[in-house]
Amino acid sequence: MQCQSIEELQLLVNKAKKYTDQGKVADYIPALKMANPDSLSIALYYPDGNCYSAGDVSENLTLQSISKVISLALALMDWGEDYVFDHVGQEPTGDPFNSIAKLEISKPSKPLNPMINAGALAVTHMIKGESVEERFQRLLTLIQKLANNSSIGYSREIARSEFETADLNRSLCYFLKQHGIINEEVEQLIDLYTRQCSIEMNCLDLSRIGCVLAFDGKDPLTEVQLIPANIARICKTFMVTCGMYNASGEFAIKVGIPAKSGVSGGILGTVPGRCGIGVYGPALDEKGNSVAGIQLLKMMSEKYMLSMF
Ligand code: DON
């Protein structure tokens, strides 16, 4: 079953909007505090180029943890599966996204998966290039191609704000460096990672990325294979098992689509073989996921039978 009209989608947004007051905008990155907690928008993108959206879809969001899906794809394209998974694991943690706890427990020490911060830092470290600038441009170019929008850039203000306050991420990096998972200057990696997290777009762009993933890495309109199918499959699998952090299990039961959240309030959704979804709702629950965004996806999953399970 497919969405038939914008009005239909707007009704669901209106219903889900009442949940925004149950959440709080992220404030541990000071610049994210500026977001409007009442915002809620969604875009659905179908392979024939049809798009339905509701809410203020022109509002920009920074990718934050959503970027981890694409940096993983790029690292896998750069190094291959064996190398990447020698440095980062494939298992969910059940812990918060910035937790340091399990790093000491796994032997040999490596982050449990690429979606938690420790794993994402290890992945970003693997992006090839001669300089931070070149590595960042390679990631940005891939994201622009996936969203079919060459004007996508990053928010310098949000990147700086995170760079100035990212001491927990720095501590994860130092731990990883001590254990040989990364071997570059921590400040350099944090610079690259904070720019990556600050890549800025709206939920329409996000839905186009979701659509490419839904069609195994191939842009359904141009038929260009932007990400190898096997790598797109790996990314979607991580989205199911770890994409919503320690809420991934409940999300799989209630919504049942591969999805990745970010502390900006964005959610990238991909419905295999059907469509891409972009959601933006900056009020977050205690696990760092968009509170109204999850409710909206739940309603949509029921209405359009989106669950893959
Ligand atoms: O590293 C951080 O803490 C942020 N730049 C991204 C974290 C994030 O988006 C977690 N998502 N729910």
UniProtKB/TrEMBL annotation:
GO molecular function of the protein, one example?
A: glutaminase activity
For this protein, what reaction is catalysed? L-glutamine + H2O = L-glutamate + NH4(+)
What is a single Pfam family found in this protein's UniProt entry?
A: Glutaminase
GO BP field? glutamate biosynthetic process; L-glutamine catabolic process
Name the UniProt record assigns to this protein: Glutaminase
Keywords of the record, alphabetical order, are: Acetylation, Hydrolase
Instruction: Tell me its EC number(s), please.
Output: 3.5.1.2
Provenance organism: Heyndrickxia oleronia
Per its UniProt record, what InterPro entries does this chain match?
Answer: Beta-lactam/transpept-like, Glutaminase
Q: Which domain of life is it from?
A: Bacteria
Q: Provide the residue positions that the database annotates as binding substrate.
A: 65, 117, 162, 169, 193, 245, 263
